[in-house]
Amino acid sequence: MLDILAYLPAKRKPTPSGWLSFNAVCCQHNGSTRDTRGRGGLKATEAGWSYHCFNCSYTASFIMGRTLSVKARRLLGWMGVPDNEIEMLNLESLRHRSIHGILEDRQQAWNQLSGIAFEERDLPPHAELLMPEHGSYWEYVRGRHVPEDFPMMVQIVNDGVHWTRPHVVVPFTYENKIVGYTCRFLDNRQPKFISDSQPGYVFGTDLQHANWTNVIVTEGIFDALSIGGVAVMHNLD
Ligand SMILES: [Zn+2]
């Protein structure tokens, strides 16, 4: 295994908790000024090492048997480890891969994804369920092939306070709670949409069926609605 200690700056100091401290090698690559106060730390463990910088907060770690991360590769490069040594370390690590390591990595990714949470939000005032009686609103939504069981809303506004442009309201749901919405205006003026959306929200996850084996990703909400896909909404159209 690559002897990382051989690449640390010569001036280093052990701490009681098992870290070696030295001038960090990362800061000047991250828009901070070069460390001169020994704020970099490395702790070697049986299976790898961890690096932490108390100056620019850069962290990286390596465990034999896991893929060498981008952050660890960068750090090794800054330490002056030649590219071919870095590649060899990665290959050696892959040879030590185990089913447990792979499953643990997967579990970590899963934990991050399942930790996603959205707060409950209100629909705009006076939003009501879209009905055939709503005439042109109803026609528009049917024309976009939105399933009839989707709870499309409409906000008929004539109080002079709220938007006066005709629009339908598409509720954003997550785990069957309302977490936002978008108003789709039916005149041909800009903007076409005004939304209340939370970072990371993907429209349509609630519309997927457990026995479906593929997910179709679209850009627009109405496309997603018409084919039972999800919409990433980078470009609301
Ligand atoms: Zn740093």
Brief summary:
With 237 residues, the protein is an alpha+beta fold. The protein is built from 5 helices and 12 strands.
Give an overview in words:
- The chain is of the alpha+beta class and 237 residues long.
- The protein is 23% helix and 22% strand.
- It has five helices and twelve strands.
- The chain has helices at residues 70-79, 83-95, 99-114, 136-143, 221-227, and strands at residues 12-14, 20-22, 40-44, 48-53, 59-63, 128-129, 153-154, 167-174, 177-185, 193-196, 217-218, 230-231.
- The strands form three sheets. The chain has a five-stranded antiparallel β-sheet.
- It is elongated, with a radius of gyration of 27 Å.
- The mean pLDDT is 89.
- Zinc ion binds at residues 24, 26-27, 35, 53, 55-56, 58.
> What number is the mean pLDDT?
89
Structure classification: alpha+beta
Overall shape: elongated
> What does the radius of gyration come to?
27 Å
The arrangement of helices and strands along the chain is EEEEEHHHEHEEEEEHE
Given the structure, what is the number of helices?
A: 5
Bound molecules: zinc ion
Report helical residue fraction. Answer: 10-25%
Sheet-strand content, in percent, reads 15-25%
Strand tally: 12
Taking the sheet with the most strands, its summary is: 5 strands, antiparallel
- What are the segments in which pLDDT stays under 50 over at least 5 consecutive residues? none
| Straight-line distance between termini | 53 Å
Looking at the chains present, what oligomeric state does this protein adopt? single chain
Strand order of the largest sheet: 1-2-3-4-5
